Amino acid sequence: MIKDKRVLITGGGGFLGVSLAERLVKDNYVVLLDTNFDRNTFAYSDLKGNKNIELAEVDILDAPEVSRVTKDAQIVVHMAAMVGVQEVLSNALYTLDVNYIGTSNLLKAVSQNPGCQRVVCFSTSEVFGAGAFGIAEDGNTVLSSVQDVRWCYCISKLASEHLALSYYRQQNVPSVVIRPFNIFGPKRVGDHVVLRFVLKALKNEDLEVYGDGTQIRAWCYVDDFIDALLRCLEVKEAIGQAFNIGNARNTLTIYELAKKVISLCNSKSKIIFKALDFTDVDIRVPNIAKARDILGYEPKVDLEEGLARTIDWVRPNAAELESRVTTERRTYIPGKGE
């Protein structure tokens, strides 16, 4: 159990940063680093005003400021990144800078902090390319064509994995790499497929599915994911390892996901299909055997229960959430956004 620690979470205003902070804040002092705290998950959290929370409005590309906020941290969780297909396609250069140079800034700072006991760096399931079914952590990662902008996110994350584990091997930085597989749940904001489907279903509007809807995803409820993340902070044997974290039992197509959301919302919405104008991932299902063996990780929340909890949270916040999604689609704003 993490207790009496100074914890730094980069990307701390986002969905997973806030979710982790909510689990740690009672027994620890948590510093949330982000570029803003008013248009992301933090705006919906109960962390505001908590005496154990410190907000650091810092750009991960600002190396001196990153070093300043890192120097006293005993635990560091690095989530800050450019995320979202449309944002990546809109600004590949910024994606590469934030995801790789930002990680480099963070790890350089951590390497100068002898009091740091653990640093967890977030990667992505996309390092396995367009077809990842049951692939283990030591499976081959995929280097796709440089002509396809879609994959600059994946490449930046893969390079960051190598960076984190190289700091472990060469400078004894206690690094762990974690690869999330499609995390969802209450308080996830922004242009995310589950939220988009729920908002449309609650208004009985058409749900848009890209392509033919046969893309396959395994959905992991946020509480299960945070359980695994906490174990990455606690288990000694996690150091120097990379872990797939997800829930293979919650696997279905995007078309089936849309139907399930409509049913759970008691909606009259219909499903329409939209042309796919970017490279997509065909299948993404994790092998979590390593996380089960080393971390003792076992996801518990099934898809329907997780979706029901998410829908219950969205209902009273639907108008504001719809406004945020619309704004994000219309205006590209560089920065962290879960």
Overview of the structural elements:
- The protein is α/β, with parallel strands linked by helices.
- It has one domain: NAD(P)-binding Rossmann-like Domain (Rossmann fold, 3-Layer(aba) Sandwich), CATH 3.40.50.720.
- It is built from ten helices and 15 strands.
- Helix 1 crosses helix 7, helix 2 crosses helix 4 and helix 6 runs parallel beside helix 8.
What are the main properties of this structure?
338 residues; alpha/beta; Rossmann fold; seven-stranded parallel sheet; four-stranded mixed sheet; 10 helices; globular; disordered C terminus
CATH topology: Rossmann fold
Shape: globular
Q: Any idea what the radius of gyration is?
A: 19 Å
Distance between the termini: 26 Å
Structural class: alpha/beta
CATH class: Alpha Beta
Summarize the main sheet: 7 strands, parallel
Helix content: 25-40%
Count of beta strands: 15
* Average pLDDT, all residues: 90
β content, as a range?
A: 15-25%
Return the CATH architecture. 3-Layer(aba) Sandwich
Count, helices: 10
Major beta sheet, strand line-up: 3-2-1-4-5-7-12
The number of distinct structural domains comes to 1
